[in-house]
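Tokens as discussed.
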């Protein structure tokens, strides 16, 4: 029985490198190649093609030697967007010229099998129709010239329509499928010189691309693009201080091998830095090797020897980090002389007391007696809880000196939780009896008691984590024990985030019995909470489900920021979204738009595609949409999308505020309802590091203008009605970043403690690297095992045509021994 043993095992490469190894691969392993892009042609904005790069004359030997190879003339724009635009728009006849130039070069090299079109930076989805038309014109031009000539197109990695991570949303696979014989998807470059270190082609990205590609294109046309190269990211100082634009330097396989085997170092490949063979690791999820050259010890977030609440562990994409999602009050009392709970000694009026907690009702007043054994100076702290925004005031006195405790800021972090506050600092008390009196201001405030102590202090805390790092001597290439010449540096890898509105309430509906609390009210319709585990009393994924109006049980909202993440079930139409008073910010399924309404008047809209979620996936994988509005006086800003993109601004008149919550004309689900302050923001950026000598360095805080800072809670408030991004010139990458210490005088053979203290919430403490001050790095590269694994996935999991390796001459030459000969077709 005959069978095609090369089905799915084709292999395409490009002649970009022009190095000796490329020619060696062509000479010795040309029989492993099925298609080669001759990377020798470049198009400009006029449509003119010039020959540049590896000369065609240098390739003729191999072209003649391997007639089985499909030799294509690769024409590229080197990622210049203006060239793509000119060709697409036919600016001054650029596309017409380009098409005639394709004919010219095919006529000049009649032996070619056709052309390979590598055009990048084509713009967003709005350009897709014209982009497709250009590729159709290329196809027709080539086929009309000679129907046997082939057209290969190089496409960006997409996991859906509009699904490019690099902004190449001009590309729609299904539209382009008719206009190519083959297509090489350039699924390499997720990690690059300026990105956080990681696999060049991570598994999740490849899975997303090819799961989608085989539904949109003919699989037998598609080459899986794979990198033969890797990157070495220098992480011991900032790129600016290193004289670089980016941290990363591209490495061939053999360059990576030289780092791992100790042939390279960071002092120009000569002393004083030792030449150290370093252990390489295997990332079994992404099927790729990596190493940490000149790193003497490292730790992930969860390797902390100790950490304190509210820091907690998390894992995302197999990265084990520490983070805090909120701050807790950190208190100190010194010596406590009196510790009295909230049970009154005496009271008048209405006072309820249970489990050591007193709650003042009408005309309620409670007294508490205590004694100190000796005269002296004392601090007195009281413990309170404001259960809701309208239960926010209480009077407390010591020996008839009264203090009013109240809070009106909606974003204040201690709502609904107990907190300690100073009644008096440094009060002189005589030996003997004294009296604390608590009286009502607003009914419902809870009094938990008080302490008389030597020194009370309090502050909000996001916790801290201590790490033990243990640098040890390495053995160099000559077998000698070695250590850094100068000393060490510590690099801390963290993930920061863009600031968000100072939190008033975060509701994901996951708390058991949340509808039974007094925090919520149903203004109209019917609502329930669906829980993924109905009987669990733990927090589990949940959805608010229903129609009508669902609101916080409070009517004093005005300048607030509201956000919701919602989905339309199958058959549901109409409007759904967030409201405050008579303002309604919604997704309108009928008009396919984000809209803002004031009563019956539409104030603005933004077109957006909105889909319903099938019943089968409503609970497990709903198609959700995020919308939000920020109300500042008479100005309302409307945002949508996962990136919280500003869509439009509207002016309202006569807005007086009121209740706020979620509203839906027909049945929808909501999995997040968040309220924040309209003017005040929480930064997610600063952390401190305490070094072994006790010194502390602050990292990450961004300088801002047009703001005032709250030093206690480390939040900032805008002083004018602008977007937060306008307060800073620094950007926040939303990718892992590195922060570097000064040189540390540490010794191999000893253990050292490093403490990381986040000053803001939502910072992910990812990894700590202790390396040679002369230089250290993170290195990812491709080896034979990695490329063979993905070649097999291309052939047998996705049934693709094969693989396209960028680029010939960067790979481990042993790869070709592991790939089949293309000249055997039976």
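Sequence:
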């Amino acid at each position: 029985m005959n069978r095609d043993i090369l089905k799915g095992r084709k292999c395409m490469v490009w002649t970009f490198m022009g190095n000796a190894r490329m020619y060696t691969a062509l000479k010795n392993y040309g029989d492993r190649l099925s298609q080669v892009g001759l990377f020798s042609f470049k198009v400009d904005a006029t449509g003119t093609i010039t020959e540049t790069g590896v000369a065609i004359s240098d390739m003729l030997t191999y072209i003649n030697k391997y007639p089985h190879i499909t030799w294509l003339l690769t024409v590229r724009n080197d990622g210049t967007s203006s060239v793509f635009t000119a060709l697409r728009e036919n600016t001054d006849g650029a596309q017409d010229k380009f098409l005639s130039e394709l004919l010219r070069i095919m006529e000049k090299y009649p032996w070619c099998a056709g052309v390979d079109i590598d055009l990048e930076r084509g713009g967003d989805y709005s350009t897709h129709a014209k982009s497709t038309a250009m590729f159709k014109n290329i196809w027709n031009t080539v086929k009309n010239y000679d129907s046997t000539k082939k057209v290969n197109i190089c496409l960006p990695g997409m996991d859906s329509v509009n699904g490019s991570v690099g902004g190449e949303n001009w590309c729609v696979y299904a539209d382009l499928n008719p206009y190519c014989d083959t297509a090489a998807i350039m699924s390499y470059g997720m990690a690059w010189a300026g990105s956080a270190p990681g696999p060049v082609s991570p598994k999740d990205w490849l899975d997303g691309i090819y799961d989608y590609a085989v539904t949109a294109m003919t699989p037998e046309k598609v080459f899986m693009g794979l990198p033969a190269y890797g990157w070495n990211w220098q992480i011991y100082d900032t790129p600016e201080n290193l004289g670089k634009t980016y941290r990363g330097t591209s490495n061939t396989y053999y360059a990576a091998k030289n780092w791992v085997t100790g042939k390279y170092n960071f002092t120009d490949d000569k002393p004083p830095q030792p030449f150290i063979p370093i252990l390489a690791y295997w990332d079994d999820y992404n099927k790729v090797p990596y190493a940490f050259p000149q790193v003497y010890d490292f730790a992930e977030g969860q390797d902390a020897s100790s950490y304190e609440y509210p820091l907690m562990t998390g894992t995302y994409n197999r990265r084990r980090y520490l983070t805090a999602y909120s701050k807790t009050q950190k208190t100190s009392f010194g010596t406590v002389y009196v510790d009295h709970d909230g049970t009154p000694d005496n009271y008048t009026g209405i006072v309820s007391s249970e489990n050591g907690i007193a709650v003042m009702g009408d005309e309620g007043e409670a007294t508490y007696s205590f004694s100190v054994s000796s005269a002296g100076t004392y601090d007195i702290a009281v413990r309170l809880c404001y259960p809701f925004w309208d239960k926010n005031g209480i009077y407390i006195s010591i020996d008839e000196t009264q203090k009013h405790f109240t809070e009106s800021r909606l974003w204040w972090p201690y709502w609904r939780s107990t907190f300690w506050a100073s009644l008096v600092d440094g009060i002189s008390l005589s030996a003997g009896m004294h009296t604390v009196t608590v009286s009502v201001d607003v009914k419902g405030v809870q009094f938990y008691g008080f302490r008389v102590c030597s020194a009370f202090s309090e502050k909000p805390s996001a916790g801290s984590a201590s790490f033990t790092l243990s640098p040890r001597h390495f053995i160099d290439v000559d077998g000698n024990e070695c250590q850094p010449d100068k000393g060490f540096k510590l690099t801390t890898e963290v993930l920061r985030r863009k600031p968000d509105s100072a939190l008033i309430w975060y509701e994901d509906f996951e708390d058991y019995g949340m509808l039974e609390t007094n925090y919520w009210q149903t203004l109209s319709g019917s609502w329930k909470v669906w829980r993924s585990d109905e009987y669990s009393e733990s927090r589990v994924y949940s959805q608010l489900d229903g129609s009508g109006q669902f609101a916080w049980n409070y009517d004093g909202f005005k300048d607030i920021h509201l956000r919701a993440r919602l989905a339309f079930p199958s058959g549901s139409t109409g409007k759904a979204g967030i409201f405050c008073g008579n303002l309604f910010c919604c997704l309108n399924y009928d008009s396919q738009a984000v809209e803002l309404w004031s009563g019956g008047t539409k104030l603005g809209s933004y077109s957006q595609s909105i889909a319903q979620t099938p019943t089968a996936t409503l609970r497990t994988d709903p198609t959700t949409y995020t919308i939000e509005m920020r109300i500042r006086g008479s100005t309302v800003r409307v945002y949508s999308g996962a990136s919280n993109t500003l869509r439009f601004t509207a002016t309202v008149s006569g807005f007086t505020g009121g209740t706020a919550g979620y509203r839906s004309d027909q049945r929808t689900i909501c999995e997040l309802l968040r309220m924040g302050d309209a003017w005040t923001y929480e930064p997610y950026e600063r952390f401190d590091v305490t070094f072994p000598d006790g010194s502390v360095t602050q990292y990450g805080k961004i300088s801002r203008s047009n703001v005032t800072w709250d030093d206690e809670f480390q939040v900032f408030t805008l002083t004018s009605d602008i977007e937060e991004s306008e307060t800073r010139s620094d950007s926040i990458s939303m990718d892992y970043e590195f922060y570097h210490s000064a040189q540390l005088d540490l010794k191999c053979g000893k253990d050292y403690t490093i403490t990381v203290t986040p000053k803001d919430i939502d910072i992910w403490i990812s990894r700590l690297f202790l390396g040679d001050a002369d230089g250290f790095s993170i290195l990812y590269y491709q080896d034979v095992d990695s490329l063979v694994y993905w070649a097999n996935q291309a052939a047998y999991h996705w049934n693709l045509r094969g693989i396209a390796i960028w680029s010939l001459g960067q790979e481990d030459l042993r790869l070709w021994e592991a790939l089949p000969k293309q000249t055997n077709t039976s």
